[in-house]
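Input sequence (402 aa), recorded before submission:
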Amino acid sequence: MLAEIKQNRDDAIHRYAETLDHWTKPEFRVSNDEIHRASLSLPETFKEDFKYAYDQVTNFARHQRESMKDFEIEIEPGIRLGQKLIPVANVGCYVPGGKYPLISAAIMSIGTARAAGVDHVIACAPPRDSRGIYPPQLYALHTAGADEIYVLGGVQALAAMAFGCIGMRAVDMITGPGNPYVAEAKRQLFGQVGIDLLAGPTEICVIADETADPSLIATDLLGQAEHGPDSPVWFITTSEQLGNLVIRHVERQLTTLPTAAMAGAAWSNNGEVVIVDNDDEAIAVSDEYAPEHLELMTNRNDYYQERLRNYGSLFVGEESTVAYGDKGVGTNHTLPTGNAARYTGGLWAGKFIKTVTYQKLTPQASRRIAPTMGRLCHMEGMLAHEATTDVRFSRYPSSNTE
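Predicted structure, token format:
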């Protein structure tokens, strides 16, 4: 698909949109009038809720941005080295609309990109029906800060943004979750463009001890399990009694849960209860799993928080829950899955920032280090490199010319 879209561009996009999105209209870009109509159709309570989540996430992202800084230091006399932070210029954000037409994902990607200082954001979402994008989702894309919005789903949306089809400018980076086809498209497009993360099925892990409420644990496990039958659902506990109680509560809640078909399949296929001897073993097991979402419900939460190393986002205490992070408490919900939390965190303002470096030398400093650099070049056999140092040694006099 990617190869065909790269070669045939708009013709291929139209064909895939008709076949896969069932979108037969010639226009993909959403007009201002359509955005306005969608806004008028929505209740004010939704708009207020959305604003709260948007403010939380973007405020946190701005603080992340402010934690990063440009700097320049004189590392030794006459040699100044610096770091400069430059936002990515053009970003394409994909927001899926399959099983669940995601709304908060617009904030997490578009809002965070804007807080980081990205110049131009293109957003794509699949049509919900013949009218186009689900109205609350369309409102979210616009309000989060997208400059252009297109009715386009899946692989064809990512390819259109990467290659610059159907009137889009080609972007420098693409973000967003999706099904396995979307994840594979992002993997193959990496290099052509930057990406946020390669996200797989969403994961939850809860660590709890005998002080925790088994019913609450079961509720949180099933809350994340409703994403789909391939979602891992892990529970680690130092109490065998609690482990058995949680299993019974999960089975009981599945009899009344509206999304039991999805959640039950995830629990049946990927549910695990791990009994450990002590807190340190619980930490070791959790770090081996490296879960996307990790909840702590113990009487030693501070101990765990200080020592845990591998997770996408941490929810400390029974008062917090994955749903808060997913929908807008402030932290980003685009997080590493499939054991990737061993080496990366989730999407944040810094992901949209390029950290570039520079050097500035005085003539005296350039002459002073030229022999050292030249000998290193020579030892590697890079004689043309060595020549660039030799010429500077000869070019600048040994006296101070500053």
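Checked by second reader. The domain at 2-196 is CATH 3.40.50.1980 (Rossmann fold).
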